[in-house]
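Subgroup meeting minutes
Present: P.N., E.W., G.H.
Scribe: E.W.

1. P.N. recapped why we're keeping a running log of single-chain structure predictions: easier to compare across weeks, and new members can see raw inputs and outputs side by side.
2. G.H. added today's entry (259 aa).
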Amino acid sequence: MKKLIVLSIVLITCVLAGLGLMLITQSNPPTNNSNSAIPGKVVITWLNNDNQSSAENVNGEFKIRGYMAASNSILFFYSLQSSKVTQLQFSATSHQVLNSGPGFTTPLKIKRVQTIGKLGSFDTGIVEIEPVNKIGQVIFLEAAPVGQASSVWQVSPLKQIGEMSKNEEINYHSVQARPSAINLKFGSGDNNNYTSLELSLPNNISAMYLKLDKNLTAIPITAAEHKRMNPALSLNKPAANTNSSQNGYEATIAPTRAL
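Output recorded in log:
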């Protein structure tokens, strides 16, 4: 009889322990410890040096209008206002400042240059570089007329402040522009993973629209297509005295140049 009572107590204890374990498991579901991207998560990797994003001299003004940074590429959207120069060549370097000593400089690969076209008095384009992952580095970009050895304009628009993600996070930034300068607005994408953007002059004088495909190639689109991809955006409509079509200006993409 005593053995039966003891056996019953042990059985009841095991059942209660099992129920307790089930409750603990349900209230604390397994967590995913992988480094996968979290939808909506903001990953801050780059610090924007907007006050170091332009350079001006007797040859004209070169300015970074914005950038798009992914794990294996950084795209700089630039404008050039010059009566002497229209075509540019680029070089890029990573400058690392150490606590002791002069630091060091690492050349960065220019993957390609895409010429967008003319917007008002500005020549516009995209420079794509291949970054390295070094927290504390400052990215320097130098521009010069094609065929000239020495640089004419130098800017340092970005500083890395966090680890570069190997996932799909992308950093976007538009440099704050003066009232008379070009504005760059990033839109969203579509089911084909295109990202659209708008380059426009103040007072809706003129605008051009682009989309970037999976390979980060800029493709000209109409204002209507940009609107379709970004239904929440209010588009800049060119003024009536411009030579735009009904759908606004389209960007003209020249053949890309791999340097």
